[in-house]
Every structure is written in C-alpha cells, then in structure tokens.
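Async update (no meeting this week)

Hi team, since we skipped the sync, here's where things stand on the single-chain job. The sequence we agreed to prioritize is pasted below, unchanged from the tracker. I ran it this morning and attached the output directly underneath so nobody has to dig for it. Comments welcome in thread, and please keep replies under the output.
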Amino acid sequence: MQWKTNMRFLHHPQIDRLSIRLPVFFLRICLGLLCLGATGSWALPELQSNIDPPAIIIKLQPSAEINGSEILLRDVAVVLAPQSISEKLLSLKIEKAPDPGMKQMLSKAKISAALSSLNDIRIEKILKGPEFIQIHRACQTLQEEYIRQVLHNYVDQQLKNSEFKIGAIKFHGKNRFPAGHLTAAVTRHTSDNLLGNVKFVMSIQVDSEPNDSVSVSAWINRYEEVVVTKRELSRGTLVAEQDLCMRKLNISKTPENVCMNIDDAIGKRIKQNMRAETFLRSTMLETPPMIYKGDRVKIIAGNGLLLVSAKGLAQTDGHMNQLIKVQNINSKRNIIGRVVDRSTVEVTF
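Output:
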C-alpha cells in the first residue's frame, strides 16, 4: 500500500515579517559590539568612577586591656577599610589611658569625636558596637625577691664585703608599674651606717624609660666583732685585758654605743654589775679619776721664774687636767688647782 503525503505550507504576514527582522537585529548587535571593542571606550569603568566608595566599618569591642599610656583605636576596635586608610585609623589616639592596674569606661561618643578630627579621610565612618568600652591598663609589680637582690647588691657595695643579711622588707606606696621590661636601682639610703631599719629610694625604669621613684624599708642585720665580758664584773672594777674577749654578734640588735675595740675598755671603771658574756657599751664604762678624794698630793705653784711646792689633801676626785679643790696641810687653806698627774696639782697665780 502506498502512502502519499501532501505537504501544505501556511503563510502568515506577521510571522513572515518577524522572520526577516530577527537576523537583521542580531547582526546589528554584533556590529555594535565589534565597534566598541575596536575603540576601547567601555561604559562600565566610567560609570564606576561616579559611584561613592563604600563606608568604613569600625567594630568596637566590649572591653580591652592595653599596655601603653594612651588609648589607640587599634586597642578597642576592628577596622574594615583599605589598608592605607586602615593603618591611619588604627593609630588614632583616643584619650589618655588609666594608671597601671586601674580601669575606666570609654564612650562611643569619645571615639566618634576623635574620628571626626580626621579631616583628610572624607569617607563615611560607621561605628558599630557598645556605647561604652571597659578599659583595663595592664600592670606588673616589683617582686620581693627581686627587691631583695637589688638591695643586697647595693649594701654589699657600700659595706665593702662586711657580713650582713637583709631581713623583712616593706614597700611604701603603690606597687604597680606599666607592662614591659622592669629594672630597679637604689639611688640613696637614709641611714648613716646601714644598720637596723633602713629606708632606700629606688629608681624604676620600664623598657629603659624612667618611671616613678619608690621607697622601700628593709631591716639590715650586720655581724661584727664586739667586746664581751669573760666573767662577772662588779661595779667599780677597773677593767683589765683578761676580763674581756671578742665575739661576733648581730649589732643591728645592740645599742649604737657598743664597744668594738678592747683597748677602748681597758683601764676604764665599770659603772654597774655585769654578767659574763655581756657586750660592753661605752655608757657602762667611766674613766677613773687620777686623784681620789682624800689622796695626799703635791701642790706646786710658780710664775716661770719661781717654783714653790707644798703638801696638800685632795677634797674631791679629779681627772687629768680637771680643776679640783685641795687643802694646804700646813695652812689649812683650800685652793683650786689643776690635776697634772696621779699625785700632783698645779696652782696658777
């Protein structure tokens, strides 16, 4: 069986016109693009140059810990901006930082005021974050072991290798300093002999920059040889060399007038009863008189050309060169004379 297909074409005026125009339309677009590419004049860059740059976003943190003496924007915020602008913004000084170890509140308004001072950056700046930021200044303290070492070096240099130990230490004032490399040095002390309770003034540096001076008190134990009694000594005893010896004691706990040389005590008279192994003080000793009351003495008198003498009786005790009262045994007359030696009194006319 044979099939016959009878094809029939339909014609419509609108469809015919569209079929003619579409190829022409696409041809024109291609020609236009070729022309633009050839001239290099593109419209997109020209349009972008007329668009304002995007705003700078500054995100504030709720709290911040800082090391320096001034609060910078980098301490409290993150800046979203081109690198050239970002670095300048991050270095912006907001206000003075609190003292080391202290806190303060920084307002968003304060940051906004600081940003408004940057007249050379005209891009809009958008602040995001809390209305207030808690600022805490980092700090460090002088540790006691470090202070002890600094004082030890200073005292050792002053005492020229004398035996000593540093006791209790007391810090005066605030022991808070900025973060960084801290060093201390003693500049002076208040005691004449570095003994007992001594006050030291120390200069402080942080990262080689001078900081405040501080005061520190310390008890200095010094060990020296002092004069000590070997046996019990009664009041009025004349001290002899065999009565004494030398002992090393902590002189920071002894009176300032303790004897440190045996020769200073030999021949002196004890003013009070003393036990064995007791240190001697100068106030416990007295120089015995050369002449005692009741001693017979020789009275001499002269004017350089003539010298006369007589026998006398001491009316009071007398030390070398001291004026005492003596009585002329023959005339019973009392006169004043100067002690010359243990048996002579000189009268001057």
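Quick observations from my side:
Residues 1-18, 35-50 have pLDDT under 50 and may be disordered.
The first strand starts at residue 56 and ends at 60.
Reply here if anything looks off.
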